[in-house]
Write a structure and sequence with these properties.
Layout lengths: L2 E2 L1 E2 L11 E2 L12 E5 L24 E8 L2 E6 L7 H4 L4 H10 L15
Antiparallel strand pairs: 1-3, 2-4, 4-5, 5-6
Length: 117
């Protein structure tokens, strides 16, 4: 399973040292604060068994971000399957998910599942 080990100091990442992902998926945003990112040896494209090609750039890519929108905040996680039963207990996923509920100023947490099958 892919591990995202680069964690920014932020209330949403308290006691979180990594995220364990089911799928290597990144988040793209111009104005977001990166909360958690991959190692600097990651690349985008290909598949799980492919090796990077000459066109692939090794770099660190965001997997969890936060961004203020109007009076609210959007937290984007590239691989939402960190919340499913089989991934919930993987290293630091439980802590990060718990922080989403306890460290936000809102009584409401919405999860967008509109992109799922």
């Amino acid at each position: 399973m892919p591990i995202a080990p680069n964690v920014t100091s932020h209330p949403l990442t308290t006691e979180t040292e990594q995220l364990t992902l089911n799928y290597a998926t990144t988040v793209t945003s111009d104005n977001a604060t990166v909360l958690i990112s991959t190692s600097e040896y990651s690349y985008q494209g290909g598949n799980a068994t492919a090796t990077p090609g000459p066109e692939d750039e090794l770099d660190s890519y965001p997997v969890a971000t936060t961004e203020s929108i109007g009076e609210g905040e959007v937290i984007a996680v590239g691989d939402p399957s960190i919340t499913i039963n089989t991934m919930y207990d993987e290293p630091d996923n439980t802590q990060f998910i718990s922080n989403l509920y306890t460290e936000t100023d809102s009584d409401t947490v919405l999860m967008d599942v509109s992109h799922s099958d």
